[in-house]
Amino acid sequence: MMLTRDITGERFERWTVLSYSHKFKQRTYWLCRCDCGTERVIKAQNLCAGESRSCGCIRKETLVKAATRHGMHFTPEYFAWRDIKRRCFNSSFKNYKDYGGRGITMCSEWRSSFPAFYEHVGSRPGIKFSIERIDNEKGYEPGNVKWATPTEQHNNKRTNRPLTLNGKTLNMAQWARELGINFNTIGARFRKRLPVEQILFKGKLPRRSHGQ
């Protein structure tokens, strides 16, 4: 049901209506402020139906409570957080040299608080997902991590460089799949600094090409 009356000053869950905003396609929109201070324009119908209860802070608080009150020490999310800290800060950990050893760290807020980490990343979407850094040159921090599949992580490896052939740019793994070339073969040719035409050559390279 469309709301046409003036609802300025009224509360809907955590929203307080500040003023009328506009009308679009016969729907009325109001400028609202959440209890946390966030301001947003909300459709009146969503306010009345309870479909918009807050700016999102209710969901975040629910996640934090789930992490702190119900115990998550044996969950994939907790194991991911624990292992990240080991990779970044424990010099005895097997993968430390590829993380902490080259300056990759975890932000101080997450390092000291699993709930803060969990609030940002949320629950693991599925059994095949693990935490990935979006930019491999940056650390584990808000905006730079996500749950990713093994294929997505493989595509984002530092060793999985982009290559351009005939105006088309793909990373090594994508070229390997497209051309039917072994990924390790492409990597070995790349390390020899061969021309891209030879790196992505399907089949055995002629002898005269080796060592160029």
State Rg.
25 Å
Q: Report the uncertain regions.
A: none
Global mean pLDDT: 84
* Mass-distribution shape: elongated
Set down the secondary structure blueprint.
Elements lengths: L10 E2 L2 E10 L2 E8 L4 E5 H6 L7 H13 L6 H14 L18 H5 L1 H8 L8 E4 L11 E4 L1 H6 L6 E4 L2 E4 H8 L3 H9 L4 H4 L13
Antiparallel strand pairs: 1-2, 2-3, 3-4, 5-6, 7-8
Helix pairs in contact: 2-5
Structure commentary:
It is a single chain. With 212 residues, this protein is of the alpha+beta class. The protein has 3 domains: 11-55, no CATH class; 59-155, no CATH class; 162-209, no CATH class. Helices cover 34% and strands 19% of the residues. It has helices at 44-49, 57-69, 76-89, 108-112, 114-121, 150-155, 172-179, 183-191, 196-199; strands at residues 11-12, 15-24, 27-34, 39-43, 130-133, 145-148, 162-165, 168-171. The strands form 3 sheets. The protein has a 4-stranded antiparallel sheet. Helix 2 crosses helix 5. The protein is elongated, with a radius of gyration of 25 Å.
Summarize the structure.
By secondary structure, the protein is of the alpha+beta class.
Which key terms come to mind for this protein?
212 residues; two-stranded antiparallel ribbon; 9 helices; single chain
